[in-house]
Amino acid sequence: MTCPSRLISNKAIDIFLNSLAKDSQFLKVAVILSGLGVDGTKGVEALSKKGAYIIAQTAMSADESSMPQSIINSGYADEILKSIAS
């Protein structure tokens, strides 16, 4: 039996952000904009624990709000900013 596609979560952003967190050579800033699901939340957590500065777009200004809202709900967002295009 296969899972419906809406239940399958893509973790590409988590993988990318976790790889950045493993690099200790540079200071980092993560900007989380419009996106679907919780992908990115674990990666942002890893970055934050390594001292990265995290910026999330407000859910109200995002075309797809679940990804930035997940970051905001996680408590790892250092700043929450509205898109100037909104």
Keywords:
86 residues, alpha/beta, three-stranded parallel sheet, 3 helices, 3 strands
Rg measurement, Å: 13 Å
Number of domains: 1
**Quick check: average pLDDT?**
88
Structure class: alpha/beta
Major sheet: order of its strands? 1-2-3
Distance between the termini: 42 Å
Please trace the helix and strand order, writing H or E for each element.
HEHEHE
Helix count, DSSP H or I runs of 4 or more residues: 3
Fraction in beta strands: 5-15%
Q: Which blocks of ≥5 consecutive residues have pLDDT under 50?
A: 1-5
Strand elements, count: 3
Q: In one word, what is the shape?
A: globular
Largest sheet: 3 strands, parallel
Helix content: 25-40%
Structure description:
This protein is α/β, with parallel strands linked by helices and 86 residues long. It has one domain (12-81). The protein is 34% helix and 14% strand. Helix 3 links the parallel strand 2 (53-57) and strand 3 (79-81). The protein is globular, with a radius of gyration of 13 Å. The relative contact order is 0.21.
